[in-house]
Amino acid sequence: SSGINAEYGGGDISTYSITELLGQSDDGRVVFTLGEIKGKEGPAVVLFEVNSINEEKVREFLSPKSELKLKLQNDIFYVFHLNPPAWTNSLKTTVIHPATEKIINKFTQKPCYLVEESPEIYNTVTRPYILDHLTDMQWVDNLLSGKSEADRVILRKHDPTQGYVLTADLKWDMSSTENLYCLAIVEDKELYSIRDLNQSHLPMLRELRDSCLDAIKEKFKVPKSLLRVYFHYQPAYYRLHIHFAHMRYAVGAPVIGKSVSLLDVMQNIGLDNDYYKKATLCYYIKDGHALSETLDKHGLIVRD
């Protein structure tokens, strides 16, 4: 479109046409869409996200450049319709192309079911599933090697067993600290999830936690007391990673059946080396997820 640099990878996002609205985030700030880009093969998933409001934008909202129309008045309460300057209405737009079935499913709103995963279920069903789904991790390897997203990397420690990269998650625009959301991804390819952790990993976890918290405080002035630090189980991908999210960031809020505090994990394996080999872990899985289909075949999802 005129005045917009919308080209990427040989395509033009301004030619994107939506074929399906997949859903939206719980806080309503992000809309997930499926569609096609003219001249590009395969489907695309495009996310439209409302950017955070900062002090600079608020001042522009109330400037003569804005249009205000009174809609309702009741005693001391006034409701206006506000049309602010165009630049304050910008949307963060994330393009995923070509979008795989896994990506499309990730952003499609579907029912979720609770799974009680015993050690036996993990060893006979989940772990074989994980080992069969390790081929679509190129983007992780690119990030760890520095081939991509280098400008979003906050801290890097290279070591095949102790190394990790702390990077700003793509959900965060790296401007509003109240929306801070970072990921620390470990280099050890044998660590898929918290199920693989034991006491031998405690030094790495402590060093990672402390170094990442210090780096975030130094770069973004956010103290550790304002950060949530946790794992997801099941994780979105099977390379061990830890989430660092600001307390006020709604998308980063821990969810029962999904989030596990880093401190809890460290305490659990500190008390029992084989804690995560023995524990039954409960989590929610989305209908249509490849793991959900695998669990379903073994009669492990109760639908009614």
β-strand number = 16
Give Rg in angstroms: 22 Å
Write down the secondary-structure element order: EEEEEHEEEHEHHEEEHEEEHHEH
Poorly predicted regions: 1-5
Averaged pLDDT = 89
> Biggest β-sheet: count, sense, barrel?
6 strands, antiparallel
Q: State which percent range the strand residues make up.
A: 25-35%
**Whole-Å distance between the termini?**
49 Å
Count of helical stretches: 8
Helix content: 10-25%
In terms of structural class, how would the helical and strand content be classed?
alpha+beta
Molecular shape: globular
- Describe the strand arrangement of the main beta sheet, using strand numbers: 10-11-12-14-13-15
Describe, in plain words, how this protein is organized in 3D:
The structure is a single chain. Strands 10-11-12-14-13-15 form a 6-stranded antiparallel sheet, sandwiched between helices. A 4-stranded antiparallel sheet has the order 3-4-5-8, with no helix packed on it. Strands 1-2 form a two-stranded antiparallel sheet. It starts with 6 loop residues before the first strand and ends in a 7-residue tail after the last helix. Helices cover 25% and strands 30% of the residues. It has 8 helices and 16 strands. Residues 1-5 have low confidence and may be disordered. By secondary structure, it is an alpha+beta fold.
Summarize this, please?
This protein has eight helices and 16 strands. The chain is an alpha+beta fold and 304 residues long. The longest helix is centred in the C-terminal third of the chain and has 19 residues, at 202-220.
